[in-house]
Amino acid sequence: MNALPANHIAIDLLVFVLSAFLGLELVRNVSRLLHTPLMSLTNAISSVSVVAALIVMSEPRKTDSIVLLTAVATALAFVNLVSGFMITERILKMFKKEKK
Amino acid sequence: MLSASYLHIFSAALFVLSLKWMGEVKTSRYGNWSAILGMVTAIVATYLAFPVDHVPLMLGAAIVGSLIGIPIAMNVPMTAVPQQTAISHAFGSLSVALLGVAEYYQRVPHVDPFTMAVLSSEIILGFLTFMGSCIAFAKLQELIPGKPFVYKGSNAVSLSVLGAAVALAADLVLHPERQILIFAIIALALVFGFSLVMSIGGADMPTVIAILNSFAGISAAGLGFVLSSKILVVAGTLDGASGLILAIIMSEAMNRSFVNVLFGGFGAAPSGSSGAAANHQQRSVKSYLPEDVASLLDGARLVVVVPGYGMAVAQAQHAVKELSAILESRDCKVRYAIHPVAGRMPGHMNVLLAEVQIPYSNLLEMDEVNPLFPEADMTIVVGANDVVNPAARTQTDSPLYGMPILDADKSRSVVFIKRSMNPGFAGVDNDLFYLPQTMMVFGDAKKVITDITSALKKN
User: Fold this and answer.
1) Cβ pair A58, B52 in contact under 8 A
2) Residues in contact with B207: Cβ distance below 8 Å, sequence separation at least 6, in sequence order
3) Domain identity same for A42 and A68
4) A and B: number of Cβ contacts within 8 A
5) Do B361 and A26 count as a contact with CB atoms less than 8 A apart?
6) For testing the chain B interface, which of A42, A63, A100 should be mutated: the one with the most B CBs within 10 Å?
7) Could you list the pLDDT tens digit for every one of the 100 residues in chain A?
8) Do A49 and B239 touch (CB under 8 A)?
9) Are residues A10 and A39 in the same domain?
10) SS3 label, residue B165
11) Which fold has domain B285-458?
12) Are residues A58 and A94 in the same domain?
């Protein structure tokens, strides 16, 4: 994994820049009504750090402290993952159209 | 490995669609579900592609996290969503920061300069966001005073702490084997996060929360670079971009810059508040009773409600709903004027009003509602203050000057429900209090509105 040269970095940077522009455009268009659930949703999305935890747990040189740090990080990420999606759902359910 | 990459592309597409669908209320729930599916796909694909050790431990951690998260999500009251959001930024950024530290130990002593630079930036950003979010939580939960904590030269001290952290990180890039440095960097990042948010006042929290949201996302993206995981880069960057846009919208709505919000110590100026106090000794306001408001509401055709943080504090949203129900039963339209920075986080007021089942088509943004004020028989201001201060239009020396405001002063009558004559967050007096058409009603917002409603029922 360490051997991958600068080319790899360039691709990651490209992904980063494109995602940034895409994210900025998409969020610009989000209705102001939904800014609070948007924030709880993106919070839940940021718990994609579970992916990072899995990768760290698959690497060869793990000491006990690395394992411990990773487990704690996983638990923290799961708090966000579960509560973020659930709160978003709770809030979105409240938005009602005018009853006719 | 290959199939995992394809699954991660699928999951990235789901995250993008999720933000797209969050754009409007109609599709927003698809947005949430698409993100859930994207997350499950990302995690499962990674698990399948990598030889993950300690699976029982990881499952245990996931279960513990879920057991903490579920009750929080089910029980948090809507008025407390700002502090809940702040504390979840703390969890998220700490998670990413700890993984950064773990990855550093995994690689030490041979860490290439690029990786080390990204890792140490990510660790600084993660820990400062963690501490900053904890302070934001404490302020919003009122565990500590919401007032900005500033002293002479506090910005210089904060910035030199950050500078020291960056300098040590640079040293670590050159000498990755100096493990002790990582602890010093963490400590400095925590101190910086602490002093940064301590110096920011409660009413600036919408911007601060958005910035912290952005930081948490960017640090996750940084970890993606280190682990060369594209899905981490994509998801983290989308989160970072979202927080950034929200922070920009919030600052624009106050006509202030990021730098001013972060380092301006806004709302701390004692001179401003004493000036305001001196001012309202000379001018007098007219104080009315809820019954007076009720009699004026007889025959009204259009009423605009301007909610603010005070409505959340007094838990007055249910009372507001009852009042609008009785007005609507008398053929009076009720609309809600939502200023972008009303409340303690972006969109806070919309959520509280949606909670009491006010249809979202009646919740109007500033540009939509301002033309309505001249036609309104009455504007009722519930727990808002600075966002309706006409000084923002005319008084060039006011700290509010240039801030876009709601034109409440243009309606035929204005009812201001307030606990006292204390000025708003900006520490300046509000000219609206003294206009001839303004009626001040002093008291707890919930009680006053309930009294107006029962007086209306009697009429």
Assistant:
1) yes
2) B247, B250, B251, B254, B258, B261, B341
3) yes
4) 356
5) no
6) A42
7) 455 556 788 899 999 999 999 999 999 999 999 999 999 999 999 999 999 999 999 998 889 999 999 999 999 999 999 999 999 999 999 998 776 4
8) no
9) no
10) helix
11) Rossmann fold (3.40.50)
12) yes
